[in-house]
Amino acid sequence: MANSGLQKLSFNMEEDEFIGEKTFQHYCAEFIKHSQQIGDSWEWRPSKDCSDGYMCKIHFQIKSGSVMSHPGASTHGQTCPPMEEAFELPSDDCEVIETAAASKVIKYEYHVLYSCSYQVPVLYFRASFLDGRPLTLKDIWEGVHECYKTRLLQGPWDTITQQVGEYCHLIVCILLYSFPLFIFSSSSLSPTLFPISLLYIFTYFTSKTVSLKTPSQTQSWFSHPIISSQSVL
Amino acid sequence: MTDDKDVLRDVWFGRIPTCFTLYQDEITEREAEPYYLLLPRVSYLTLVTDKVKKHFQKVMRQEDISEIWFEYEGTPLKWHYPIGLLFDLLASSSALPWNITVHFKSFPEKDLLHCPSKDAIEAHFMSCMKEADALKHKSQVINEMQKKDHKQLWMGLQNDRFDQFWAINRKLMEYPAEENGFRYIPFRIYQTTTERPFIQKLFRPVAADGQLHTLGDLLKEVCPSAVDPEDRVSLCCSGWSAVVRSWLTATSTSEFK
């Protein structure tokens, strides 16, 4: 999807904010197909009775003091200060542990589910170290980029909270339809906490199902590095 | 709603007599006596156990204390489940008092959410209330409330104040006179036998032909294995058995679990 898709989106909460579960599943199938084509590792996980399911992606990042370049790493072309660098976990885990000796490797697991209550896609994620210890909410809040921290700290529990997902024990629930508002209203996480392909998920779903009106007061947000032209696939 | 007030009060004031015992491997400076408490069914463990924590911490050294967590017969107790739900799921066939073991170390990261403060409980509670209203009223009622009304719901629960809570909650339990019920019934079905934490689906209180749906209709649709051909089912709904032919009217709390 072209990044110019972002600027074309407008959102009308009162009319078009819901999608049905079958529509969600259909768009997930298209999304997964595209993800496979670009090697972005999203996959569909069906429920046991196969009547429903969710999209899942696992993503590893090294938290270190300097920018590192890894061959084959997926940097997403971010223009934000690169506090963390995404990389693909090599097949030899020992190599990861050695290279991460002076760093922390954090595993992010993302689930995109359908919420029958809100009738929109919902994003859950869990961040943990390689030994399985989860990042605390406090760690996650503290990982938020400085320019968003003030807004976050005004209402952290209203912004990023913890819930148990329907399929597994995951922290954090964010309503996907509010994802860009979340990002744009400076109460979001550091962009490196979310792979930029998640922005793609939002634009993918919303352009298919709703028309988004850009609030006039957020025009300046489009100039922010998070959503600059290089940042969307 | 006025006719149901006795039911509402019975649900709110339901209590479970509980005995808290310190885990035997916790390090203490002297013997820790058990602590007895009547737990409110509609509340949350970490909200109502400050006295339990203080009681056991008196016999422990500060360095041996980290986040408190509770366990029943080896199962860590999820604080984000209402107390009544925890008891009904795990201990309803056991003799009273409910025996809960208290831990201050080795927090089971894979089984429990952390509860760093009362804010975490409030956030979880309000999240449930908002989701319930999304189902009932497309979130219109709860979104039109002021922040102080949301706060009053929480304070009512925290302070065990029925009237304070219901002064606001009654608005969340109303629906237009021309309709026979909410848009959808907010419910979750918890079973110990399934891998999924709960079953939650969209379900309307009124059928297409205008007939009111019953609890049995709901169960047959979303959890048919729980109902036998003669419509017999044993339910735990906040401590009282519900008849499957009960209409799904707004007689219980905003959260039906």
From TrEMBL, chain A:
<keyword id="KW-0963">Cytoplasm</keyword>
<dbReference type="Pfam" id="PF03987">
    <property type="entry name" value="Autophagy_act_C"/>
</dbReference>
<protein>
    <recommendedName>
        <fullName>Ubiquitin-like-conjugating enzyme ATG10</fullName>
    </recommendedName>
</protein>
<keyword id="KW-0072">Autophagy</keyword>
<dbReference type="GO" id="GO:0015031">
    <property type="term" value="P:protein transport"/>
</dbReference>
<dbReference type="GO" id="GO:0032446">
    <property type="term" value="P:protein modification by small protein conjugation"/>
</dbReference>
<keyword id="KW-0813">Transport</keyword>
<dbReference type="InterPro" id="IPR007135">
    <property type="entry name" value="Atg3/Atg10"/>
</dbReference>
<keyword id="KW-0653">Protein transport</keyword>
<dbReference type="GO" id="GO:0006983">
    <property type="term" value="P:ER overload response"/>
</dbReference>
<keyword id="KW-0833">Ubl conjugation pathway</keyword>
<dbReference type="GO" id="GO:0000045">
    <property type="term" value="P:autophagosome assembly"/>
</dbReference>
<dbReference type="GO" id="GO:0005829">
    <property type="term" value="C:cytosol"/>
</dbReference>
<keyword id="KW-0808">Transferase</keyword>
<comment type="similarity">
    <text>Belongs to the ATG10 family.</text>
</comment>
<dbReference type="GO" id="GO:0000422">
    <property type="term" value="P:autophagy of mitochondrion"/>
</dbReference>
<comment type="function">
    <text>E2-like enzyme involved in autophagy. Acts as an E2-like enzyme that catalyzes the conjugation of ATG12 to ATG5. ATG12 conjugation to ATG5 is required for autophagy. Likely serves as an ATG5-recognition molecule. Not involved in ATG12 conjugation to ATG3. Plays a role in adenovirus-mediated cell lysis.</text>
</comment>
<dbReference type="GO" id="GO:0061651">
    <property type="term" value="F:Atg12 conjugating enzyme activity"/>
</dbReference>
From TrEMBL, chain B:
<dbReference type="InterPro" id="IPR042526">
    <property type="entry name" value="Atg5_HR"/>
</dbReference>
<keyword id="KW-0963">Cytoplasm</keyword>
<comment type="function">
    <text>Involved in autophagic vesicle formation.</text>
</comment>
<dbReference type="GO" id="GO:0043069">
    <property type="term" value="P:negative regulation of programmed cell death"/>
</dbReference>
<keyword id="KW-0832">Ubl conjugation</keyword>
<comment type="similarity">
    <text>Belongs to the ATG5 family.</text>
</comment>
<dbReference type="Pfam" id="PF20638">
    <property type="entry name" value="ATG5_UblA"/>
</dbReference>
<comment type="subunit">
    <text>Forms a conjugate with ATG12. Part of the minor complex composed of 4 sets of ATG12-ATG5 and ATG16L1 (400 kDa); this complex interacts with ATG3 leading to disruption of ATG7 interaction and promotion of ATG8-like proteins lipidation. Forms an 800-kDa complex composed of ATG12-ATG5 and ATG16L2. The ATG12-ATG5 conjugate interacts with RAB33A; this interaction is bridged by ATG16L1 and promotes ATG12-ATG5-ATG16L1 complex recruitment to phagophores. Interacts with TECPR1; the interaction is direct and does not take place when ATG16L1 is associated with the ATG5-ATG12 conjugate.</text>
</comment>
<keyword id="KW-0472">Membrane</keyword>
<keyword id="KW-0053">Apoptosis</keyword>
<dbReference type="GO" id="GO:0034274">
    <property type="term" value="C:Atg12-Atg5-Atg16 complex"/>
</dbReference>
<keyword id="KW-1017">Isopeptide bond</keyword>
<feature type="domain" description="Autophagy protein ATG5 UblB">
    <location>
        <begin position="184"/>
        <end position="231"/>
    </location>
</feature>
<dbReference type="InterPro" id="IPR048318">
    <property type="entry name" value="ATG5_UblB"/>
</dbReference>
<dbReference type="GO" id="GO:0002376">
    <property type="term" value="P:immune system process"/>
</dbReference>
<keyword id="KW-0072">Autophagy</keyword>
<dbReference type="Pfam" id="PF20637">
    <property type="entry name" value="ATG5_HBR"/>
</dbReference>
<dbReference type="GO" id="GO:0019776">
    <property type="term" value="F:Atg8-family ligase activity"/>
</dbReference>
<dbReference type="GO" id="GO:0005776">
    <property type="term" value="C:autophagosome"/>
</dbReference>
<feature type="domain" description="Autophagy protein ATG5 alpha-helical bundle region">
    <location>
        <begin position="119"/>
        <end position="174"/>
    </location>
</feature>
<comment type="function">
    <text>May play an important role in the apoptotic process, possibly within the modified cytoskeleton. Its expression is a relatively late event in the apoptotic process, occurring downstream of caspase activity. Plays a crucial role in IFN-gamma-induced autophagic cell death by interacting with FADD.</text>
</comment>
<dbReference type="GO" id="GO:0000045">
    <property type="term" value="P:autophagosome assembly"/>
</dbReference>
